[in-house]
Design the sequence.
């Protein structure tokens, strides 16, 4: 069993446990439309960034709802003794809201402010019967929330070189409005990427992220690789966290296929303390969730400023484990795993209107 878990962990490390989101940050102005002749654009923007022709428009406001069909398994085992807890998850839903706005949009320096709100909800078919599994009662009654703000600095150095720095603060946990304490739920991540724009159709970069993707705050590598091979096909990758193959169906329709490794780290305050091998009174837990998603996504323009995205795929959960936050050693107390299951999501996002983009394009000429 340990060998199997080790191999699974190795596979996930190869695929990537990062939650870096450099490609989610819009770049103003957005990339030009793809040249249908396949020869690129002679009037390509002067200063480099990570986007290439053929990519979709920059997203300003995103509202996304994801639903995982109910009745998949949850299996939990207490570390160091104690009873097991097995049940079915009757509901697992996610609401995500993101907003991005340019604070500064100079040719040599761009500052992007981002805000996000995520809420994940669970319902279980069998109530937890022991104090150590009281975390599931917390999750079911309150949900798991994330409120965050970020600042991205995009620095186009010249026509070839660019770099990006981003810092993000989030409040992650099972809190509600009348009991929110910043110090109890605060998480901070940062990343730096340096890149090269080799042509209007090819940009790549290397960097590092300081984050919580394996539980403790650690440093992870990042590789950005965006390339349009021809007017129809391209790749958008933030390796090892995410790799997508892109198909340009038309000027206003895109199809993507690939994978994403998504991780969440939540702080939980228990209503009923319980005893653990190294702590007689556990009052706070850290819940670490790591999912591997195989994705098929379709994006389509509804209006000049409004797009929709429809996504479906399969989610494999690597872990849903709980660690002792009241103990400095961060002992693992509960091993859990959610059953694999299909999922689907629908989102709407606002993009810069075409007239505004055309005006910006004329002003750069």
Sequence:
């Amino acid at each position: 069993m340990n060998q199997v878990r080790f191999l699974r962990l190795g596979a996930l490390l190869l695929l990537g446990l990062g939650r870096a989101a450099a490609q989610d940050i819009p770049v103003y102005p957005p990339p030009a439309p793809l040249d249908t002749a396949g020869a690129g654009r002679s009037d390509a923007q002067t200063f480099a960034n990570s986007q290439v022709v053929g990519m979709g428009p920059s997203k300003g406001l995103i509202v996304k709802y994801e639903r995982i069909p109910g009745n998949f398994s949850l299996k939990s085992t207490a570390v160091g003794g104690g009873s097991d807890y097995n049940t079915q998850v009757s509901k697992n839903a996610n609401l995500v809201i993101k907003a991005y706005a340019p604070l500064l949009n100079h040719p040599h320096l761009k500052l992007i402010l981002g805000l996000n709100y995520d809420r994940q909800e669970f319902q279980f078919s069998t109530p937890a019967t022991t104090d150590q599994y009281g975390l599931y009662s917390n999750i079911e009654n309150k949900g798991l929330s994330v409120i965050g703000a970020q600042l991205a600095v995009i620095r186009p150095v010249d026509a070839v070189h660019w770099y990006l720095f981003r810092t993000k603060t989030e409040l992650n946990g099972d809190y509600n409005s009348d009991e929110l304490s910043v110090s109890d739920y605060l998480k901070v991540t940062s990343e730096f990427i340096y890149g090269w724009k080799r042509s209007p159709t090819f940009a790549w970069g290397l960097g590092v992220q300081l984050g919580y993707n394996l539980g403790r705050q650690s440093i992870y590598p990042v590789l950005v690789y965006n390339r349009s091979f021809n007017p129809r096909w391209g790749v958008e990758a933030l390796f090892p966290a995410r790799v997508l193959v892109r198909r340009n169906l038309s000027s206003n329709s895109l199809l993507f296929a690939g994978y994403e490794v998504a991780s969440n780290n939540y702080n939980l305050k228990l209503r009923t303390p319980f005893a653990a091998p190294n702590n007689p009174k556990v009052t706070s837990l850290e819940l670490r969730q790591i999912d591997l998603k195989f994705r098929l996504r379709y994006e389509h323009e509804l209006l000049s400023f409004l797009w929709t995205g429809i996504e479906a795929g399969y989610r494999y959960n690597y872990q849903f484990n709980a660690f002792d936050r009241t103990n400095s050693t961060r002992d693992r107390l509960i091993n859990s795993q959610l059953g694999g299951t299909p999922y689907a999501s629908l989102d709407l996002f606002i993009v810069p209107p075409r007239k505004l983009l055309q005006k910006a394009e004329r002003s750069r000429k």
User: Anything to note?
Assistant: The chain is about 10% helix and 60% strand.
